[in-house]
Amino acid sequence: MIAEIGHYALVLALVLGVIQALVPLIGAAREDLGLMVVGRRTAQLQLGFTLLAFGSLATCYGLKDFSVALVANHSNSAQPLIYRLAATWGSHEGSMLLWVLILALCAGGVASFNGDIRETLRARVLAIQGMIATAFLAFLLFTSNPFARLSPAPLDGKELNPILQDPGLIFHPPILYLGYVGFSVAFAFAMAALIEGRADAAWARWLRPWVLGAWIFLTFGITLGSKWAYYTLGWGGWWFWDPVENASLMPWLLGTALLHSALVLERRGALISWTILLSILTFSFSLIGTFLVRSGVLTSVHAFAVDPMRGTYILLIIGLMTGTALGLYAWRAPGLRTGALFGAVSREGAVILNNIFLLTVALVVFLGTFYPIFIEVLNGQSISVGAPYYYKTFVPLSLPLLVLVVVGLQANWKRDTLKALGLRLVWPAIIAAITLILAAAVLGLDKIMAPIGFALGLWLVAGSSLVLLRRWRPLEGSLALVWTRVRLTPIAVYGVVLAHAGLGITTIGVTGVSCFQSNKVVRMVPGQSVVMGKRIITLDSFEPVKGPNYEAAQARFSVVRPGQMRTLVSERRTYPSSRSQTTQAAIASEVFGNFYVSIGEANPDGAIIVRLWDHPLVGWIWAGGFCMAIGGAAAFGQRRPRSNGPRTA
Asked: What are residue 522's phi and psi, to 5 degrees?
């Protein structure tokens, strides 16, 4: 009965989606307030029914209702309750239901908040949201019904993919989807602006919080995903240039450009066309990520094994939405007001230059991701594009981009001069130059990328911190006056500094682990010790243990280094239900690096293969990512100029 309630709730949500897509659009064209309000009510009702459907599926998992095919295929009785509930979004159908739920949550937010938004604009935004919801609800009901029954019902289910039986599944997909789907609001605002033929600072003021929120969640989700892959897959890597990883990176790059363009439009009334175009492209690339996971065109640890027909359906949705949006942009964008004027040397000019680099880098990632797919479709030849391609393309383009980040932070609005801008950049440049020279002298020119990476990281941290120093002016006035400036600094300013400094911290972490990581593969028996650097690693024991739904071979290690001794535990788990194996790595995390241990299969003589990694500064990668997300959250406190437009009674 619970499954039927969820199914009918989805049907009602689809009906409401159709109404939401049509009625407010007609109401906005006729300026009929009654019809426009229908869009708000249907969005709120659709959220309620979609939430009911999602709750019904989660309940089926919690109650072990194996008569529901999805529950039977992705959970079993021995699986811990927390992972049975998380399995709600651990499959294709369940993850699409989560996708639709977050889409409804976004539409409900637009309907319930933004009290001073123009009613005609809100109606058109909700209509576009309704069209997107209708497309994906139809996809869910007609091709991927999560409530399909299984007869006869098995006594016990199969099992959720063992790799997903991890706390990462609980947090990573929902947070990542909040980023992906959150950009649908930016897409809807862009389409509404093109239909109205109007986009101004007030429009950007209503748009920017949605863009910022989606960017925060996407940043947080990517960072969590990298951390999850690092300790779960047992490979000792934090990024593998996997196509689905790239699918999250592309909208992040475009979303970063969109966020800065929306800020310029809000503050200066400029970059209207840039903001609308980036809104369209960012959500389109989010949809491309959805297509990659579900199309069956690639093999990935992230991909759902589904038939290509579902991927074709999603590809049609992408083509229709993106094609319509770009066609409308080509028709209507030339007629939009061009916005405020500014000089080439200005913050607006720096944002444009940053946007060009971000678009180019996103294109490089897109080509590396899809080129093998294109080749296979054209001539059936299977090729792969790996890390060397990205080292030769992504990295050279990223270096000037990182330099430009600080230039944009220090440039004045509207117009500036190269001389004045150069003077403001003196101290960050000196710090970066000293770092470059000292690192090159110590490490040698054969590892020149390490000094460059460290110098760029400190350039970003110092250049970001300079924003606060320029505001506080510590050398001017009394100590009390300086403290007053510190106390009155808005939290949003701290957020901006933290977000950009976080990029520098991540750059330092990437440089450290990429240039200086080392590894060793050894064969060990209990009681044996090996030396790696300043560490002595001893295998203390190797014995079987039993988990709630798995059996494991557990290895305990003593890791001794000067002044410190730690015990690390690594496991090789076997899941009888699915006959799958996973590796649980043992990680000693420290400020300046991680020591990483994972075990392989045991030999008949009792020896095991042990893989040891030393990862300098790897934790800084995730620390920087979290700093960026937290800084973005703090930026929500930024005061935004009020619209001069009429308020709705």
From this structure: -135, 160
Q: Angle at Cα 338 formed by Cα 334 and Cα 340, nearest 5°?
A: 175
Nearest C-alpha neighbor of 173 from the set 98, 268, 236? 98
Q: For the chain, what percent of residues have pLDDT higher than 70?
A: 95
Give dist(CA 168, CA 86) in Å, integer: 10
Q: Taking a C-beta distance cutoff of 8 angstroms, is the pair 458, 506 a contact?
A: no
**What pLDDT, on a 0 to 100 scale, did the predictor assign at position 158?**
87
How buried is residue 237: exposed, middle or buried, by Cβ count under 10 Å (0-12/13-18/19+)?
Answer: middle
pLDDT, tens digit, for every residue of 517-539? Answer: 999 999 999 999 999 989 999 99
Residue 42, amino acid: T
pLDDT at residue 641 greater than cutoff 50: no
C-alpha 7 chain-centroid distance: 30
Burial class (CB in 10 A: 0-12, 13-18, 19+), 8: middle
d(CA 362, CA 253): 6
Contact 254/362 with Cβ under 8 angstroms? yes
Cα separation, 262 vs 124, in Å, equals: 19
**pLDDT score at 298:** 57
Residue position matching structure tokens 């750059």: 507
Length of the chain: 649
Provide the b/e sequence for 319-331 (b: ≥16 CB within 10 Å). eebbeebeebbee
User: Distance (Å, rounded) from C-alpha 641 to C-alpha 267?
Assistant: 8
Q: Are strands 529-532 and 535-546 parallel, antiparallel or unpaired?
A: antiparallel
Give the count of alpha carbons within 13 A of 146, CB side only.
39
Q: What is the pTM of this model?
A: 0.93
Q: Cα(322)–Cα(290) distance, rounded to whole angstroms?
A: 14
The answer for residues whose C-beta is within 8 angstroms of residue 496's C-beta and 6 or more apart is: 409, 464, 467, 631, 635
Distance CA 249, CA 252 (A): 5
